[in-house]
UniProtKB/TrEMBL annotation:
Keywords: Signal. It comes from Diatraea saccharalis. It comes from the Eukaryota. This is GPI transamidase component PIG-T. GO terms for cellular component: GPI-anchor transamidase complex.
Amino acid sequence: MAVLLIIFMTAVFGAFGDDFIEEIFIKPLPPTHLYSYFQFITLINNNDSFVHSNLSPRSIGEVISRFKVEELHLTLTEGQWRHNQWGYPVVDAAPGAELYAWFDPEVEDIDAEWRKLSATLSGLFCASLNFIDSFNTITPQMALWPTGPVKSNVNVTSLLRYASLPREIVCTENLTPWKKLLPCESSRGFSALLNSRMIHNTNYHSIGVHVRKVCASEDCTETKLEIKQTVALVYDYKIIGSNNWSFIKLFGHGLPGACPLATTSTIYIDITSNVTFPFQLSPPPDKIVSSHRGGSVTNLAVYNIETDVEMINVGVKHNSKEKLGVNVPPPLHFNRYVLGYGKEFGGIVTELINNYWTAIDVVVLENAPWWLPIQLSSLRINSEAESKLVKSQYYSPGRSRQKPYHLELLLTLPPRSTTTITIDFEFVFLKWQEYPPDANHGFYIGSAIVTANLPTAKNYTSIPVSGISYNSTFNASQPCMYKEM
C-alpha cells in the first residue's frame, strides 16, 4: 500500500508539473559581518487557474488571479543595508514595508484594485499594508521596470503602483504566515533554520515575496509563474562571539535535511576571501565553483543537500582570529540625510558616489509625503540650479492630504566623483489627530530609489533578470549589471 501511495503522489506531482527550489547563499562582509540569504522558488507551469494547487501557495495564487497582477514585489525590512561597506545584496529592500506591482492592461480601475491588493496582503502577512492609499502611492516613470516578460505594445509605467511604509516594524507575526506559504512550512528543509528568536537578533533582516512570469520556451510564447520567497540576514561577529560561525551559532540548531518536495536544495558559500584570510569549511563541500562575471571572479563552495541525511551543521573556522578583512567599496553607492532643524523648514540631501573610472547613468526617485512639500524650484545639483548632468526629469506635485510629491531624475555621474542632490522642503501645519504615534520617533520619510546599470560585477551578488536560481549567476555574460538600491 505504501508503494502504491508513493507512486500515486509522484504521478499527481508530475501532472501538475510544479517545481520547488530552495537555496542558501552565505558571504562574509568584511570586516565584522556575515550575510546569509535564503530563497525558496516555486515554479508553476499551469497558472490559468488556482482552484487546484500543488506546491504553490494557493493564497498567493488567488491574490494574483483575483486582482489581475502581472508582477508583485513585497518586502518587510528591519535595519539598513550599508552599501558602502557591504556592497550589494542579492535583493535590495528599503527599511519598513515596500510594495509595488504591475497590473494587467485589462484592469479598468487600477487604483481601486491597488487598494484591494494592499488590504488583502495586509491580512495575509499580518502587516499594516492597509494604510496604503492614494496619499502615499506613486507611479514611477523611470526607476522601476518589470523583471518578467511584457508585451511590446503595452505602457508598463501606467500599470505600476508603488508605496512604502517606513514606520512598519517587522516582527514574528510577519514571519509565521510567510513560512506557512512554503510546501514544507518550517518542519523540514531550509526554512527550519529560520528561528524567529535568532534572526530577529541580527543587524539587518528582510523577508520578501516576489511574483513574476518567466519564459517557459525560448521564444517566450509560453510563460510560467514564479513565486520567490526571500530572507536576508546580516550577523555581527561581535554578537556571535567570533568570526568563526556555524549553523548552530547562527540559527540555534543544525539543518535537518532538505524539503522532501524540493527539486534541488543547495547551499552556496562565498570563499573568495579564503585566499588572503584562510579558513576551513566543515563538512567539506561537494564541489567548488569559480564564476567569472563582469570582470570579477568569485569562488563558491557548493553543498547539495539530500532529504534523508542526518543533522547538518555547516561551519567555518579561521586559522587566525586576529586578522580581519578590509572592505572594498562598490562602484556606486549613496548617502542620504536631512538638513535644518525645527518644525518649519529643511532639506533632503542625496549624495551619489561613483568610484568607477567611467561615467554611470543612474535614475534617482524621491518620494516625499504630502505633509512635507518639496519644491522643484529649490532643486540643486552640486549647488547648481541647472546642471548638465541631468538628462531627463519628472516631477509630480503633491496635494494636501491626497497625493505625495514625486521626483525622478536621470543623471550621468562623472567618473570618480560625488554628485550632491539637494531639495528644500517645508513642514505642513498638521491637525492634532494627524500626528503619528510615538512622538519621540519623529517623522519617517520613505527611502529614495537609485537604479543603475553597473559596468562591473564588483561586490555584486544579484541574480540576472533572466535567471531563476542562484546558479544562473555563474559566468553570467550580460553586458551591464542592473541594480535597484
